[in-house]
Amino acid sequence: MDARILLVEDDPSIREVTAIGLSAAGFDVATAADGVEGMERFLAEPFDLVLLDIMLPRLDGYEVCRQIRRTSTVPIVMLTARGEAMDVVVGLEAGADDYVRKPFEVPELIARVRAALRRANAGPAGETASLRLGPLSIDVAGRTVARDGTDIPVTRTEFDLLLELVRHAGQVLSRDVLLDRVWGYDYLGDSRLVDVAIQRLRSKVETDPAAPELIQTVRGAGYKASR
To answer: What is the distance between the alpha carbons of residues 115 and 63, in angstroms, rounded to a whole number?
Structure first.
């Protein structure tokens, strides 16, 4: 795989070890040591994926992610040393597709990167041009969502998650199944990632996210889209 990756990481040792590991796996890697340099490189060169540390000098990872999302749908994987739920929420809200907690093993990171690239390169699955869920209209090919005719901005991952649920409306999908089908891995996954993504998706598509009607929780089992 010869995908180009931008690694934005301020810790020199982590940056060097990660870049070497990614290069050995066949990726073309460019690096930046802070958020401003990372944005400059991203705007100057094409990349297939961005690995983005949260705690960066000059411009933090959240703001870099937001700026990238204004013009690009490139996959973004956040690197965090903290891993609290709020960090995950903020990262996903900023437009990140996934996150990896430090310290991480390079093979795990490579597996996450490959999964994110597969998702980004996959064409629209299925033959249905559009789907509906209550007041929601989902344009599969155009990857857009509207509620009562009003467009709803969703990230790539949020769209894939909604699409998977709607295609199996009425069927309970476990967190492990969603990790496998939406994020492209299971044993490497963190079920909290699914919970946070569901929370963010509900905040956009539900009339009252605290009392969801479209995307329901089945306690102890997973989630399902209403019929």
So the answer is: 24
- Residue 112's SS3 state is helix
CATH number for the domain spanning 176: value is 1.10.10.10
Amino acid at 186: D
Q: Which two tokens stand for residue 113?
A: 């990167």
Residue 196's domain comprises 130-225
pLDDT higher at 97 or 89? 97
Token pair of 3 as six digits: 């995908």
What does pTM read for this prediction? 0.77
Tokens of 39: 């944005």
H-helix or E-strand spanning residue 115: helix 106-121
H or E stretch at 24: helix 12-24
- From CA 31, how far away is CA 8, in angstroms rounded? 6
Q: HEC states along 185-200?
A: CCCCCCHHHHHHHHHH
Q: Of the residues 92, 121, 150, which one is the last residue of a structural domain?
A: 121
Do 116 and 134 belong together in one domain? no
CATH of the domain at 97: 3.40.50.2300
* 12-29 tens-digit pLDDT: 999 999 999 999 999 999
